[in-house]
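To the team - IPE complex, inputs and output below.
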Amino acid sequence: MDIKSKINTKNTPKHVAVIMDGNGRWAKKKGMARVFGHKNGVKAVRETIEAAAEINIKVLTLYAFSTENWNRPKKEIDVLMSLLVTSLKDELKRLQKNNIKLECIGNIDNLPKKAHKELLEVVEKTKDNTHLTLILALSYGSREEIVNAIKKISKKVVNKELLTEEIDEKIINNHLYTFTLPDVDFLIRTSGEQRISNFLLWQIAYAELYFTNTLWPDFRKEHFFEAILDYQNRERRFGKTSEQLQDRNEQTEK
Ligand code: IPE
Ligand code: IPE
Ligand code: MG
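Output:
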């Protein structure tokens, strides 16, 4: 039986986030420059998007460039940014065909003009698509996102639009870049690193974490489906006991 058919499509995570890591090491292993790895990571992006769409995942967030990645050598940043432009151009048709909406989180004003423009164009052109929402985290840092949220909330308090007592989790959530999205259910990181690297810190509070040694350019649909199967074998308790969850399941079955 192929791996995809083992997936219970009624119990897929609503929101999957992926830290696409390992491009540089993939290239190095082949005796090539790091940017060769980035170029070969594009196919993995495409496969992951298609795989998510095939099993009815509603939101897929891909970590493409962090606020900290601006500290890389300029040459590498330039390649990543031009890859972004060409990939967006190439993907538009496919996004339309598969009814996928593109959105973006992060400080995108920092992107080079061309990449910024291309991005906004694809966002605009796909805004009515409904099958899957694809979020690109670009120039994204979770701490920066939280700092921005606190600034926006403070201003509202100063302007008396909001009382300090009214600040709750929902208000904070509503001031993050991800305010329209459900929490992350499942976080995948490739390349063997087991860290979060400033990604969606608030939104992963109860996410299931999955780490695989596969380097990003080698990541294919089967790897994605394998990860989803792993997710489906876990029990998400959200602080409750296993027995409480069993009881609830029995009630809904009745
Ligand atoms: C992920 O691969 C891509 C980005 C962070 C932009 P890396 O470039 O981090 O590859 P490694 O981790 O050095 O192998
Ligand atoms: C995280 O990967 C950022 C992205 C995948 C875009 P990094 O390779 O930048 O993370 P660290 O530096 O190893 O933590
Ligand atoms: Mg890395």
